[in-house]
Specification:
about 850 residues, alpha/beta, five-stranded mixed β-barrel, five-stranded parallel β-sheet, binds adenosine-5'-triphosphate
Length: about 850
């Protein structure tokens, strides 16, 4: 290790790649080792090696974070510091890692990388002469002057500190005993410098340059300290405080613990933090906690893991908008215009939202209710929530609750846990930076439950206006006032929202759209939006109403408009390619193209320059098929009703209404009933009810079994199937459909192919009301059916249905099964001569 009288570092050095902190010669840092390469280096060199040589390693700063450290070696900084590993501490918790205490010796340059794995090994060239340090030569010339100036500045800095603190006294002595040329490195490592600045000092191989680089940093620190001392009023207990601050943060402690992150802030870190704590306008209780934590922090060495924890906590506390809010600028008339402009249709929802806003305007301290928009996907629930924030001039933040199954997601983890974090509510507040945003709790119906507690229970406190003024996040551990936050929830169904949570909200149902509404929404909102997204203009692409109709009926089957928007997006992409190509293509080339895209002579100014002259491209029937492929959905209704034993029911799903084919068949057997299609208990009971009613009325309706006997079940097995087989179905509303389907089977007559029905049945043949009428009727209309049989007591729900749809459908309100059957079969479903006693509902 020693040659020519000077100290030489080995010419081959294993390289330790660090991503935080910069080791400078003459300083000591603590480095946390957890990347695979560095772990290998520690294991095979430091833990196994016995010679002094084996404890010298090259530290290369500023490589990428090891988390992102791939197999590939990142490009390395060419200059590093050879360091002596003074201490290695290993730990298995929370994951295996080592902490290395390492003292910088001298600079080196990587001349050649010998190998990369298991850890990098390189040929190096030593840059600083270590013997200089020991001989203490005098520097002369310009360099001498510079070093003298630097020394004086260093003395001045130390002079500003409290000499009664032992480390300061030691530092003062060190300044005199250390060779001058080592001062830039030693001081740059001690004073407040960012990583970038330290890196510049490391890169300054030339001594003069190094002095020049470091001197301004030193002067800056002196100025900062001066400023700090000026701002401190000489209070009796102040002196003590200055001392504490110096001890803990600013200067002396850095000599021994330099492993902190680089900070660019001027002035004393702790003082800045303390100022921020005092300025955060937090309530008394929170302030007390913060000051206590701050006090602890000041006493803590920075290398302690708890230091970072406490520091993060305090940073969050000062960032939270305790008293910061936006001013509501609510103008109901403007709100109405904005809601109307952003959303077509949705009249009921918009009316209720306006009422809600109006009451808020009159009574600003309105507590609750919390609105919950319930409806199928893509009907604009989220987007109405966003509009509400816009009309109020408030910040908007969406919290997706789908799949959240841990209550700490809402309420945060206690700070005792490693990696603890605040919950989503507090995080959201930090993100928006004000305490009165609009929070959209998306998908509250999809909250999960697990061993980690029930998130819905945590939400109860958040949403309860009586409690949420003192919401306590586990991480914060002090109350935060959420009463100014406006909560809006969305869900696809109320069935899976926990009852206690549902009870705190006002549910507004947002049903699916009719075909006509979808066309309007497409032309007013979706097409312009998609055109803009794809950099197209209406002069380049036109989608006529007929085409939109076709997309809706043949390429989408949904209650909302999301997949319609996607299809329009697909068209825009296809046209964007044409337009982009068009810039290059000559007119003749274009006209020889297949006729799938109809072209009209352009009239706009774009026609000459920006776009080819054939603009706009109009998407017609052929072009649509070309872009979107063959149609995805067919109206197959009439084809499926060509045999007896099939009837169309109407079902409600969280995705909107749907038509459902109920199929029945019979074969010789022992009177067994088989049900398939993943049915729930209620639905199975409906099937049994239907069979019982039909058996008891078989004579009356002249229903027979295969052999012609009067009991339809005698010697006969019956199979009832509900497609789609993979989807679980339940509920009583299929009752009338099952009866109709079986009546068709037993009588051998076909059910009318344009009829759909819904309704619960009783054993005595009554038809009881069911829910989701609007969605069901819309589904029947979408499917092109003409007649809808529904329970008489649901007649009032028809008012919600747009007039033009009502006009196109024939509604048959039925209170008895007799009426249902009469409406479902062409020419009615006659009874035998003995007239059936008229049963009327008294329920
Ligand atoms: N009535 C409407 N007028 C204009 N645009 C609409 C309307 N309804 C829906 N949209 C548009 O449809 C898209 C989907 O809406 P949004 O994301 O709000 O649906 P959602 O109901 O919240 O669905 P999910 O339940 O899946 O969250 C948005 O781009 C929205 O702008």
């Amino acid at each position: 290790m020693s040659s020519n009288g000077g100290i030489q570092i080995p010419s081959r050095l294993p390289l330790l790649l660090t991503h935080e902190g910069v080791l400078l010669p003459g300083s000591t840092v603590r480095i946390s080792i957890d990347s695979a390469r560095n772990m290998q280096l520690v294991k095979s060199r430091l833990l196994k090696g016995t010679s002094l040589k084996s404890t010298i390693i090259g530290v290369i700063p500023n490589t990428r974070d090891p988390e992102h450290d791939s197999e590939e070696l990142p490009s390395l900084h060419s200059i590093g510091t050879a360091g002596l590993a003074v201490q290695v501490v290993g730990s298995n918790w929370p994951k295996p890692h080592y902490t290395l205490l390492i003292t910088g010796l001298c600079r080196f340059r990587v001349t050649q990388l010998i190998r990369e794995r298991p850890f990098p090994l390189a040929l190096v060239e030593q840059l600083d002469k270590l013997e200089q340090y020991t001989e203490g030569q005098q520097l002369d010339g310009g360099l001498g002057e510079l070093s003298q100036k630097f020394y004086q500045a260093a003395v001045q800095l130390v002079g500003m500190l409290d000499i009664s603190v032992p480390v300061v006294a030691k530092l003062r002595r060190l300044l005199d005993s250390l060779p001058r040329e080592t001062l830039p490195d030693v001081l740059a490592a001690m004073i407040r410098t960012s990583n970038t600045e330290k890196l510049q000092v490391l890169n300054a191989v030339d001594l003069e340059e190094r002095f020049k680089k470091t001197l301004p940093l030193l002067t800056r620190q002196i100025e900062g300290l001066k400023l700090l001392q000026k701002t401190r009023k000489p209070k009796p207990d102040d002196e003590k405080r200055v001392l504490v601050i110096r001890k803990g943060g600013a200067f002396p402690s850095r000599q021994f613990s330099l492993d902190e992150e680089g900070e660019d802030e001027e002035g004393d870190d702790m003082a800045v933090l303390e100022r921020k704590v005092n300025e955060a306008a937090m309530p008394e209780s929170a302030l007390r906690v913060c000051l206590k934590e701050l006090k602890r922090l000041k006493k803590m060495p920075q290398s302690m893991p708890e230091y970072a924890l406490t520091r993060n906590y305090l940073d969050l506390m000062v960032e939270l908008p305790w008293n910061k809010s936006t001013k509501d600028c609510l103008d109901i008339r403007a709100a109405r215009v904005l809601l109307d402009n952003d959303h077509y249709a949705l009249e009921k929802l918009k009316r209720r939202v306006l009422e809600y806003l109006a009451v808020r305007q009159l009574k600003s301290s309105l507590k609750g209710p919390i609105l919950c928009f319930v409806g199928p996907p893509g009907v604009g629930k989220t987007s109405v929530g966003r509009s509400i924030a816009k009309t109020l001039g408030r910040e908007f933040h969406r919290i997706a609750l789908g799949g959240v199954c841990d209550q700490s997601d809402i309420r945060g983890h206690r700070r005792t846990y490693v990696g603890s974090m605040p919950g989503r509510i507090i995080n959201g507040l930090k993100t928006v930076g004000v305490n009165n945003p609009v929070f959209l709790l998306d998908e509250v119906d999809k909250l999960g439950k697990s061993l980690q507690g029930d998130p819905a229970a945590a939400l109860l406190e958040v949403l309860d206006p009586e409690q949420n003024h003192s919401f306590t996040d586990h991480y914060l551990n002090v109350a935060f006032d959420l009463s100014q936050v406006l909560f809006i929830a969305t869900a696809n169904t109320t069935a899976t929202i926990p009852p206690a949570l549902l009870d705190r909200m006002e549910v507004l149902h947002v049903p699916g759209y009719t075909q006509e509404e979808k066309v309007e929404i497409a032309h007013r909102h979706l097409i312009p939006h998609q055109l803009e997204q794809h950099g197209l203009t209406p002069q380049q692409l036109q989608i006529p109403q007929d085409t939109t109709q076709e997309i809706i009926s043949k390429y989408t089957r949904e209650a909302g408009v999301r997949s319609l928007e996607r299809k329009i997006g697909a068209i825009c992409r296809a046209v964007a390619v044409k337009v982009a190509e068009g810039h290059k293509m000559s007119r003749s080339e274009l006209s020889s193209e297949s006729g799938t895209v109809q072209e009209r002579a352009g009239t706009g100014r774009d026609s000459d320059l920006a776009a080819p002259p054939e603009m706009p491209i109009v998407i017609d029937h052929v072009a649509l098929k070309d872009i979107l492929g063959p149609q995805l959905f067919e109206m197959e209704v009439s084809e499926r009703l060509t045999l007896p034993g099939v009837a169309i029911g109407l079902a409600w799903t969280p995705l909107g209404g749907e038509i459902m084919f109920v199929e029945a068949s019979r074969m010789e057997g022992e009177g067994q009933l088989t049900l398939t299609g993943q049915l729930g208990d209620v639905m199975k009971e409906s099937a049994h009810l239907a069979i019982s009613w039909l058996r008891s009325n078989a004579k009356n309706y002249q229903l027979t079994n295969i052999a012609g006997s009067a009991d339809p079940l005698e010697g006969t097995d019956i199979h009832l199937h509900f497609p789609a087989g993979a989807v679980t179905k339940d509920g009583p509303s299929a009752g009338v459909t099952i009866v109709t389907c079986l009546a068709s089977l037993f009588s051998g007559r076909l059910v009318r192919s344009d009829v759909a029905m819904t309704g619960e049945i009783t054993l005595r043949g009554l038809v009881l009301p069911v829910g989701g009428i609007k969605d069901k009727v819309l589904a029947a209309h979408r499917a092109g059916l003409k007649r809808v049989i529904l329970p008489k007591r649901n007649e009032k729900d028809l008012e919600e249905i747009p007039a033009h749809i009502r006009a196109e459908l024939d509604f048959v309100p039925a209170s008895t099964l007799n009426k249902v059957l009469n409406a479902a079969f062409d020419g009615g479903f006659p009874t035998a001569a003995v007239t059936h006693p008229q049963v009327s509902s008294k329920l």
